[in-house]
Structure formats: structure tokens, C-alpha cells
Structure of UV-damage endonuclease:
Amino acid sequence: MKIGYPCINRSIGCSSGRTFRLASYSRERLEETLSKNLRCLDAILRFNLASDILFFRITSDLVPFASHPVCTAPWRETFSETFSEIGRFIREHDMRISMHPDQFVIINAKDPEIIDRSLAELRYHAAVLDALHLDATAKIQIHVGGIYGDRKASMERFCREYARLDESILRRLVIENDDPRYTLADCLAIHKETAIPVLFDSLHHQVNSSGETVTEAVELCSATWGPEDGIPMVDYSTQMPKARKGRHTESLDGAAFAQFLGETAPTDMDIMLEIKDKEKSALAAVEIARSDRRFLPR
DNA sequence: CGTAGTCAAGTCAGA
DNA sequence: TCTGACTTGACTACG
């Protein structure tokens, strides 16, 4: 079991997702920004290693405008050595990596232009993981997409579009149950049709439940991951007290996390903490997991 | 220098 | 009809 956090490290004073306005795009600006972003990604991974945080989600903003037509700079070639070095570090230390494209990636859209833009964005995410020379255990997680007034038809459209994806995307893609739309049961139904692995999100399941207990949910999801996919990934968060439903908490609730570990103990998984204070909660979670001999070795 | 307005992209609920 | 939320605020024009 590995524990991680997404995209941003608040302790080390750099960002691996620096960007700029589309209006100020230039090849020089892109290369300057990407160079800084990669240097910061390297710093974050070194920080993580020193803290036994071996799971990390790389920000989608690593290469600004990568899937936009304006971006014609050959960044894969220009930075191939840097990507390779960072990838070597990740593999040497047996780290787990994921990416999570944002809400604009919608495989089941009705508008073909939205599908095209989504495909370009997925190709970009796959290109980053490929440039790092990571195997198929480095995943790209997306949601099922829109409902468009007909859940069943929209799920079928997802399955149809999924079947047409390039292998470079297919081998990495997983779906996650979301908060306002597709439940865990919906995702498992899509898995039956497509064999796509299902990533369990604990807070979304709490807010938009299809009835399974956490123990059941994690077991069901785990069964959708094949050997080449690696250990199942799970997104873990709890509700921010008194806030809008589905809002992530500011900091880790240690007791709730310990209970989650207990409920899911039979299933090995890599846990992504979607909590606002990021690495701080990940550090606390590593200590909690360590204090229980069933989980992390000292 | 500080800060308010704005930023590539989609969906959908709620005001 | 518009705004906010979503994995995450941060860039930059303007005073």
C-alpha cells in the first residue's frame, strides 16, 4: 500500500503546474515554463521519497496548452532527457503515478468536437506518462461524463467511444465514480461491458451512493483491476464539516482515516488523499498506516 | 507594488 | 440566464 496526494506541494515553495495566459503563448514561454515545472516535479518527488510518500498525481498543467492547437512546440523531443531522468527516479524508488484530466474530458459527449478535444487531452496525458517511460500501472483517471437527460444511453455511448480509443490511452484509462452523476454501480456496469478498471472515490460514494458498504465497494473495484494495471488506486477524502455536500476537508481526520483502513484492510490498494492541505495530510496518513502493522512496513 | 478581474475547454444544479 | 463547483488558484493589467 502506498499513500499519496495530488498535484501540489505546499511546503517546498514551487509549483509544477505554472501556466500563463493563452494570449501570451510563445514557444519560448512554453519551454521556459515547462523547464521550471519539470524541475519542480523533480523536487516534489524527492520530497515525497524522503517522507515515504510513494504515490503522486502529476498535474495536468505540467505542459501548458499541450492539447491546444496553438501548442506546436516539440516539447517531447526538447525535454525527452529530463522526462527520462525523472521517470528513472520514479521507477528506481518504485513510486506510483497517476494523472486526472479535468472536467473538459468527456468521452460520452454528443458533440464530436468535444470528443476530439477530449481525445487530444487524453493523448497528451498518455504522452507525459510515456515520456517518463512508465508502464501501464501509471493511470489516467476520468469520470464517465455527462448524463444528457438519459443515463442509460449516455453509458452506452461511453462504451462505444471507449472501444475506439488508441491503445496508448486504453492501457492507462480508468473510471472513477463521481459526485453528482455516475455512481459506483454505474461504473461497475460499464466495467462489465468494457473491462475498464474502476477507481473508488470514497467521498463521492458517500455523497452519491449506490448502496455498497466501503468494504464491499473496495472489493468490487479491486476485482476490476488486472495484473498489468497494478494495485487498485483509491481516492480518499471526507466531507468538510458544514460545507456544501461533497466539499473536501481542509485536513485529515485521523480517526476517520484509521477506520477506513480497518474497513478496507483485506484489500491492498494505493490511496490518494484528496485533502486541501496536501502533503501535510499525506505525512499524517503515512504515520497512521505505519502504526498499524497490517499496512506500511517501518 | 498590491490587487481585482479574469482565465481553453463541459456539465449541471441552484440562485 | 448566470454562477459556482469540479483534483488545484494563479496570471496579469491596471492603478
Summary: The longest helix of chain A spans residues 27-50.
